[in-house]
Amino acid sequence: MGKKRKHTETEALANGNKEETAIERPKRTLLGFKDGCTEEENKETSVVTFRNKEKVLVTCSRRISFRYRHLMLNLVSLLPHCKKDNKVESKDAKGATLNELVELKSCSSCLFFECRKGKDLYLWMAKCPNGPSVKFLVNAVHTMEELKLTGNHLKGSRPILTFSSNFNKEPHWKLLKEMFMQIFGTPKDHRKSKPFYDHVFVFSILDDHVWFRNYQISCPHTGTQKIDRGDLEKMTLVEVGPRFCLNPIKIFAGSFGGPTLYENPFYVAPNQIRSLEKKQKAGKYAKKVKAKTRRKMHQLSNPLEVDEFADMWKE
């Protein structure tokens, strides 16, 4: 058997081999490997790029009707960067609850569908946790299942956002335009999105209401009708859905509350509209009762003269 080497000899051989072959590896940092240059040089050479990490939490209140729930699910399918959560109780303290949920889900925006009396749908659109936030009344709701339109675009593809020229006229419309761009615009290179632009989100203002439409960009790709890239004349828009109309009520400085930045002077609550309709129906019945009493008073004040031939045939 051979003799064992001493421990000091093995260490000396290992150190000699390291000095001959191995090169000392630079230290690893959060920004890469530190190669001996100063921090100022690293800052100058490194390029800071902006990455859009926008995520939207979509949730609704309890006792929401099926039609409004389908509208919420349609929006979830259109926004690949959103996260869906369980139903939330719509009470006075819903703002604190929703802000906490947004923080737990690591989101930056929130779409909250609040249904009241099973008839009225309110949409809260908020930037969390510092605001601003907008409260809308949702009207003219038509879901994808209800419309059955012929348009069909790729799920998860990035939309083109288009706005009417009215959004640049007043400050509150400019604020709403910026919120729509941040919430409905799909971030670039998102893991659930597709790198295609094959549909358009249209936001237009008419009668102080925001109307939403979703169209597919359709163009022929085969045969003699195949078009070149950039040829927009043969492209057509086919509606996909859903459709809805947003009536802005108030714009708040904070998230789900805070100082009021804007209040719609033309807004009429749905409860007030229903009460006016009931009063009109009640007014019809009151008019009938008054007409009957007037008829009786007229008959009493103007009695008929006695007919002399009334009892002629009784004998």
From TrEMBL:
GO terms for cellular component: nucleolus. It is found in: Nucleus, Nucleolus. GO terms for molecular function: rRNA binding. Its main location: nucleus. Residues 1-21 are annotated as: Disordered. InterPro entries: Brix (IPR007109), BRX1 (IPR026532). Keywords: Nucleus, Ribosome biogenesis. One of its GO terms (biological process) is rRNA processing. SMART domains: Brix. Residues 54-257 form the Brix domain. It holds the Pfam family Brix. Belongs to the BRX1 family. This is Brix domain-containing protein. It comes from Nicotiana attenuata.
